[in-house]
Amino acid sequence: MTKLSIAQVIATANGSAWLGRHQSIRRIVTPQALRQHLSADAQDNSTELAGQGVYANATDQQDGKNTNYDIVNAWQVNYVRGECALDGKLLALSGICYNDEAMFGNFHSSRPACKVLDIGCNTGKNMTRALQHGGPGTEVFGIEFSSDSVAVAQHTHGKDHVFQGDASANFIDEHEWNNQFSAAQCTAVLQHMTPEQVQLTLQNMSRCLRPGGELLLTFKDAPTKDQLANMGMGFLADQVFTADITDKDGYLRDGFLRAVMWDDDYYPGVTSENPPQNRDLALPGIHRREFIFYSLEWIKSKAMQCGFVADHVEMMPDSKIPFGAFHWMVVFRRVEAV
């Protein structure tokens, strides 16, 4: 298979200006610099796990200004897309850029008029996508940990559809949502949760769905270079963040990897036309965050314990700097019993 540059594929959607900015930042932020600021264990108590405060300066949408989320979304919304077998082996790779709009459009347009729950709904943009693509009869509810994000989502969807809460706590009984939904979505959330929290969240996802209901789930992973090669994705080995960089043995042992990483999304100037020429990696702030990268097999095994079976798997690496973040997209179906 021809080696594919993630940035070049994503640039087909964002244009030459985006690619030029991407290349400028890569010259400033080198893989060597990033490696020096990675850790397999999070010891810094100031590490931001849930994103609380990221949207603290989000302005009222009526004034026309962008929130931090809008800036972040414009940077990372596009992906390289590959359809996979259920074990993760690559079946077909698309040369066309994929994005969140297409992902939610594909899912909801084929499942019209559903009652949908968005777990970790953020500012409600994916709730809006569910309504748009699900069509008439679609009803969407959301739960979100960050009170700042909840306020933005409630502005659009109403306080009777968006609620503040912890996805790993018993929000199902609190809202009487047991067996109430035919579809659920949880995207880019699990990397902010501990393994114990993920297990509880999967249980809640299963409880909220009716038998046969479906869950759209995306999560970060850090497969080893050997695993990527075995799955037919060896050409990505030097383009995505892998467990080899931090704790390969721990990842293979546990099925997941903890890393305190420099999160470029929230560093001032990253998405500007004139990126900074110097970066203070010791600067305290919410750009240093703990992420947990979960393997496909670990998630599938925990989901099975909660009554889920995987029906569809895709890979979606994005264009972070200097390594892309490797994501899985899995559609799970709730069964009566396992």
Task: Write up what this structure looks like.
Helix 1 crosses helix 2 (16-28) and helix 5 packs across helix 6 (125-134). This protein has 338 residues and is α/β, with parallel strands linked by helices. It has a single domain (6-334), classed as Rossmann fold (3-Layer(aba) Sandwich), CATH 3.40.50.150. The protein has helices at residues 6-14, 16-28, 31-35, 68-76, 100-109, 125-134, 147-157, 171-175, 195-208, 225-230, 248-254, 296-305; strands at residues 78-79, 82-84, 90-93, 98-99, 115-119, 139-144, 162-164, 181-187, 209-221, 256-262, 288-294, 308-315, 326-334. Helix 6 (125-134) links the parallel strand 5 (115-119) and strand 6. It has 12 helices and 13 strands. Mean pLDDT is 80; it is low at 37-75 and 265-272. The chain has a 9-stranded mixed sheet, with helices on both faces. The protein has a two-stranded antiparallel sheet with strand order 1-4. Strands 10-11 form a two-stranded antiparallel sheet. 32% of the residues lie in helices and 22% in strands.
Keywords summarizing the entry:
9-stranded mixed β-sheet, Rossmann fold, two-stranded antiparallel ribbon, 13 strands, alpha/beta, 338 residues, globular, 22% strand
